[in-house]
Amino acid sequence: MTRLAIALLAVFAALPFLGLPDYFLHLGIATMLVGLSCTGWALMGRFGLVSFGHGAFIGVAAYTMALLWNDAGLSPWIGLPIGVSFGVAAAALLAYPCFRLRVVGHYFALVTLAAGEIVRILIVALRGITGGSLGMTPRLAPDNSFAAMQFGKAGFWYIALAAWAFGILVWWWIDRSMSAKALAAISEDEDAAASIGIRVTREKMMITLISAGIAALGGALGAQYKMYLNPETLAGLGISLQIVFGALAGGMYSMLGPTVGAAFTIALEEVLRIAFGTELIGGAPLVYGVLLVLFILFLPRGIVGWFERKR
Question: What's the pLDDT at 284?
């Protein structure tokens, strides 16, 4: 799988030189950035830490970066790490009390779900600063596009590729660390893991913060690429469920599974957009829900897991 990831990285790096239409470059950028967020979610999801609140961390990171640029003139190159740091800090404020108080399982999932909705409602409420439900647009800077991180699709392709490669590298590092073994033991039985010397709260906090940071990075870059921020697509339950669906569909136990799931999600989104248009409002979420149930029932290890089993 590691060799396949390296080969994909080389292929992706060469694709813009083949003269692909902008539409396909757009799909590729969206796939890599959504795949990065799905990879971040899967880092903790595969150890039984199910979160429905990653939209909160993405929203905090994206809006922090955009507001620093619009109001303070701080380049997104600097605002991005600051925004991701704020997203990680939000994850710490949420996760630490939960882990100390032994909030686990579906209770933890409900807490994270509520956190995502709180951030979405807060963004809507602060309409004078964030634009509310109408959203906001980063200030254009055609005379200094590099400092503003405002590139064409070919230029942004390599930013997305570098971020995606970073996410895959983090997965590889975690997968080969002792923390992966410790987290696997914790997911089976926290008390037994603690009895053999594993620092349960520390390990769970570490993987949660890394997961939140990777997901926030992908979401913030996605907002910068689209040059539009909206609380419905960057915070709350909607974006969180999209990330969960992508990770589960592709296979959250495999390095490339979340990326495959992201590609499946983007392709399905395009097909449904063309098929339904504005004629059947709510049709796309219905399809997502049905497919999520089918994946859980018949492909619990996702598309990549199914192929690995067949091989």
Answer: 66
Q: What is the mean pLDDT of the chain?
A: 89
**Angle, nearest 10°, between helix axes 153-175 and 22-45?**
20
How far, in Å, are 34, 88, 168, 179 from residue 204 at the CA level? Answer: 24, 14, 20, 9
Give the predicted TM-score (pTM) of the model: 0.93
For 157, the token pair is 């392709």
Place of tokens 């925004």: 83
Domain total in the chain: 1
How confident is the model over 218-252, as pLDDT tens digits? 999 999 999 999 998 888 788 888 899 899 999 98
The 3 state secondary structure assigned to 23-58 is HHHHHHHHHHHHHHHHHHHHHHHCCCCCCCCHHHHH
Identify the residue whose tokens are 């994270």.
112
The helix/strand/coil state of 8 is helix
Q: Tell me what pLDDT residue 163 has.
A: 95
In 3-state terms the chain splits into helix, strand, coil percentages (rounded to 5) of 80, 0, 20
Q: Where are the alpha helices (DSSP H) in 75-126?
A: 76-100, 105-125
Q: Which domain covers residue 231, as residue numbers?
A: 2-310
Can you give the CATH number for the domain in which 265 is found? Answer: 1.10.3470
- How far apart CA 120 and CA 132 sit, in angstroms, is 9
Whole-number pLDDT of residue 104: 84
Q: Is the dihedral of CA 90, 94, 100, 105 positive or negative?
A: negative
- Give residue 125's pLDDT band: very low, low, confident or very high (50, 70, 90): very high
